[in-house]
Amino acid sequence: MDLTFLGAAQTVTGSCYLLRVNGRRVLLECGQIQGSREDEEKNRERLPVDVDALDAVILSHAHIDHSGRLPLLCKQGYTGPIYTHDASRALCEIMLRDAAYLHEKDAEWENTKRRRKGLPDVEPLYSREDAERVLEQFRGVSFDKQVEVVPGVKLTLRNAGHILGAAIVELLLEERGRRVKLVFSGDLGDPDAPIMEDPDTVAEADVVLLESTYGDRNHRPFDATLAELESIFDNSSARRGNILIPAFAVGRTQDLLYLMAEHYERWRLDRWHVYLDSPMAIEATEVYYHYRHLYSARLFRGRGPLPMLDNFAATRTSAESMALNDINAGAIIIAGSGMCTGGRILHHLKHNLWRPECHVVFVGYQAEGTLGRKIVDGADYIRLWQDEIRVAAQVHTVGGLSAHADQDGLVGWYGAIKSRPPVYLVHGEPRAQHALADRLRREHGAAVHVPAYGHKLKL
């Protein structure tokens, strides 16, 4: 039996690993590559797996960098089961449809330009029909319940504390009398996360795949994060400008709404109008309401999925979103995408980024090559739809709201595994991975590896 690293190897996105046991093939994750245009073009390459020989897929959670190529897998002929938590299935229903819509719009935009040049049309990466079809292949799995995926591969999902339904993947593998327990951390949550419970720990494992997104740093203390948000809201003038918050539709948006409600008076939010300008985030919030038994935070008021926040409006339609661009002051606009790679946040940046009285608050990781990363790194100008926009708004990076564990969290999670198994670092940039590897070796004597794309691990 062996495991081949086909994604998120020395990079953060594009999660994908191929497991072979007893002649069966199981794909762990099938995520979209995100980042620069050159990076995202790699999604068009045929998936590096023999779809006809694939027996099952396991998905740790719904984020697009873990799930985003599943419709492409289906488009290329895969018809087998996809195992994931029930809540992840519900979120994928929203996120994959949205991703497909964006792929269709991108192709439409590109084809308009190509036709003017006499060039042939391009197809979208996949369509909404592909997304609908792949959803029929999902098989819901509850936390802590063992399921046999194929002969010789038994799956148990544990709570990863990252977003709703996010799981640590435990796999008991057996081939010719040899047994191996493989544990994939998935994306581990931060213990200070406002809504989600702390990640479960694992007592024993033979091999560990550990994410390393924040492997080279620790988050700010959560109290300091709250104080920073208070300062941003308190020192901003609701009479002069707006506050833009690019936020991931799943997880970060719900955390923000919860914190805004909890600190409504302290942060003087009564001076503002809060807009959730993301149809996907609105739908995801409704899923959080449906699966509220998975966390203890009190996010909603009454019996419906309305956050406990005064002066709140959800803008579903394009017309409602466009109307926000007529507001010169007094608006806090939460919109996707979280890394400013698309979505409604781009329109709000176009109308506000050049205004010194406005603020842009980043509350999540910004991958290399993304527009969000360029703004965070201090770009003086950005380009949107062939227009050059001056970056004059005040830019804030609030790191303490990450849905990922930081270096202390990652080291502590591994430290709870008594057997001190070899660990393979994934989902990280090389600098973060090597910093985490050094600390794991120093504190736990771990045998740490940083696999490259295509590396095959004999189990």
Commentary on this structure:
With 459 residues, the chain is of the alpha/beta class. It has two domains: 272 residues, 4-Layer Sandwich (Metallo-beta-lactamase, Chain A), CATH 3.60.15.10; 180 residues, Rossmann fold (3-Layer(aba) Sandwich). 30% of the residues lie in helices and 23% in strands. The chain has 13 helices and 24 strands. The strands form five sheets. The protein has a seven-stranded mixed β-sheet with strand order 6-5-4-3-2-1-24. Strands 7-8-9-10-11-22-23 form a seven-stranded mixed β-sheet, covered by helices on one side. It has a six-stranded parallel β-sheet with strand order 16-13-17-12-18-21. Helix 4 runs antiparallel to helix 5 and helix 4 runs antiparallel to helix 8. The radius of gyration is 22 Å and the shape is globular.
Please give the share of residues in helix: 25-40%
How would you characterize the largest beta sheet?
A: 7 strands, mixed
The residue-averaged pLDDT reads 94
Number of helices: 13
Low-confidence sequence ranges: none
What share of the residues does DSSP label as strand, in percent?
Answer: 15-25%
Q: Write the CATH architecture name of the largest domain.
A: 4-Layer Sandwich
Briefly note the structural class of the backbone. alpha/beta
Looking at CATH, which topology of the largest domain would you report?
A: Metallo-beta-lactamase, Chain A
Radius of gyration: 22 Å
CATH class of the largest domain: Alpha Beta
Q: Could you tell me the number of beta strands?
A: 24
Task: Give the full name of the CATH homologous superfamily of the largest domain.
Answer: Ribonuclease Z/Hydroxyacylglutathione hydrolase-like
The number of distinct structural domains comes to 2
Distance between the termini: 6 Å
The strand order across the widest sheet is 6-5-4-3-2-1-24
The 3D shape can be described as globular
